[in-house]
What does this fold into?
Amino acid sequence: MGAEVPVSGGTAHIVWDWNGTLLHDIDAVMIATNASFAELGFAPITLERYRELYVVPVPKFYERLMGRLPTEAEWAVMDEAFHRHYWAAAVDSALAEGARELLRGWEADGYTQSLLSLAPHDKLVPLVREHGIDVHFLRVDGRTGPSHTSKAGHLVRHMAALEAAGVTASRTVLVGDAVDDALAAAHVGARAVLYTGGSHSRASLESAGVPVVDSLAEAVATARELAG
It folds into this structure.
């Protein structure tokens, strides 16, 4: 889906993450996280603690909190509760500051962009469309399999689907808010820029060894440099 944008071989391309990057949904995430903990009798956590411990795949995040991996039954309860509460709260989440203008500006400069998220595809696409930004992307892909996965495999498929539009890994930068985004980019031979407005603390993001920024405007400026 998305706009048909004329491209030349190897043009600079951004793969945007959604949750915590383009969508400023950290409040919804915290509501849903603590609601899912409550269903199993765990104490709530603060945003600071969440960012300190967060990791993908998500069961490893719960392992850091609980001192052990959740059982299959516990995971099923937490996963269902998280998504139920998250999607109820996410409707009030706005785009990150300047996101709309940055998407428009990158496109106006003749570059291309797409969106890849671990949010369920059937929930993601209508939400992106509701925000009116779907027209800026060559394609929008959400997760179609289980929720306890990392982004690398999804990015492989996403990049393969973009080949016909002239997108190459060597001129692609993934802009996200998690260490997993940097790992996924490295897996396909792309670059990454990590943004501090989402799920990780700055210290945790810096452990990935890629540029870390505090605004999407900085992310786009850095992506422009990295993509050549």
